[in-house]
TrEMBL record:
Annotated protein name in UniProt: Thioesterase
Pfam families: 4HBT_2
Sequence intervals crossing the membrane: none
SUPFAM superfamilies listed in its UniProt record: Thioesterase/thiol ester dehydrase-isomerase
Coiled coil, from the record: none
Organism of derivation: Chromobacterium fluminis
Length: 156
């Protein structure tokens, strides 16, 4: 069974480039942010669910590592790995790849918090979202831990 979770495919844009012809650091995070949106769709936190239940994900913490340059005209792919989750949080690792390269150009570890914006605080995931997260965790069980995880992001 293929355990890879491709969340997003994108292409670099000319306005993303700096004076060296490299993608600016902020655009790596933009691509990762869109990948989180794609994950939300996948686990049942899409726009319709947010309208019904009001819950959404907020980024509580992240650690972004730049590993390789990305230059103009690159096809990008973001893969995701659910590292851990509990009633209100999920810990996610995203890797950004150039074209079809196996080695990541960047890695991003995130702690995401389920929030009820109307209440202004964190709240437990809905049962369907929790079931989706549990299923994803089972699907990805046994995968090796990404090398650059655990750098100052903790679940207490």
């Amino acid at each position: 069974m293929n355990k890879r979770l491709v969340l997003l495919r994108a292409q670099t844009r000319p306005e993303w480039l700096d004076y060296n012809g490299h993608v600016r650091d902020a655009y790596y995070l933009l691509v990762f942010s869109h990948a989180v949106d794609a994950l939300m769709e996948r686990i049942g936190m899409d726009a319709a669910a947010r309208e019904r239940g009001g819950h959404t994900l907020y980024t509580a913490e992240l650690h972004l590592r730049y590993l390789r340059e990305i230059r103009q005209q690159a096809e990008l792919r973001v893969e995701g790995r659910l590292l851990d989750h509990d009633a209100k949080r999920l810990r996610l690792y995203l890797s950004l790849h150039r074209d079809e390269e196996a080695d990541a150009a960047a890695g991003c570890e995130l702690m995401l918090l389920n929030v009820d914006p109307e209440q202004g605080r964190s709240a437990p995931f809905s049962a369907p979202v929790r079931q989706s997260l549990d299923a994803l965790a089972r699907r990805q069980a046994g995968q090796p831990w990404p090398e650059d995880c655990g750098r100052r992001i903790e679940m207490r």
